[in-house]
Amino acid sequence: MTIGDRIFERLGEIGMTQKEFSEKTGISQSTISEWKCKRTNPTSEKIMIICDTLNVTPEWILSGSSKTGNRGNELPWYVIDRSTELGRLVSQYRELDEKQRARVMGYLEALRAMDGKT
């Protein structure tokens, strides 16, 4: 399945017309029509606006392999923006030695146990 195929599959799922998609993304209808005819694929700078509009992940739109709702396969890894709280947490965790990491994991497990989430 191509990127264009996934775009049009998703448009059908959410009941959005090609015209509405064009208006929401700012991508011309003629460009979108070219994708449908499989003559071209979206350029890389359009992927994020497409994903945002269709409420899918870049991984799914590019490969069909990430989970969004009930579509695709769950991946064994995450893509995290380093500027987010979670990204900063992962960056700082990676700087810890093995003993410090074990301690952090112990704290997390204790916090979850306090809330009954273990």
What's the SSE blueprint?
Layout: H1 3-14, H2 18-25, H3 29-36, H4 44-54, H5 58-63, H6 85-94, H7 98-114
Question: Can you put this structure into words, describing what you see?
Answer:
With 118 residues, the protein is an all-alpha fold. Helices cover 61% and strands 0% of the residues. The protein has seven helices and no strands. The termini are far apart. The mean pLDDT is 86.
In short:
The chain is mostly helical.
Corresponding CATH architecture of the largest domain: Orthogonal Bundle
The top-level CATH class of the largest domain is Mainly Alpha
CATH topology heading of the largest domain: 434 Repressor (Amino-terminal Domain)
Main beta sheet, described?
Answer: none
Individual helix count? 7
The structure class reads mainly alpha
Q: What kind of assembly state do the chains in view correspond to?
A: single chain
The run of helices and strands is HHHHHHH
Overall average pLDDT: 86
Q: Could you tell me the radius of gyration in angstroms? A: 20 Å
- What's the β-strand tally? 0
Terminal-residue CA separation? 40 Å
User: How many separate domains make up the residues?
Assistant: 2
Percent strand: under 5%
Low-confidence stretches: none
Shape: elongated
Q: What is the helical fraction, as a range of percent?
A: 55-70%
**What is the CATH superfamily label of the largest domain?**
lambda repressor-like DNA-binding domains
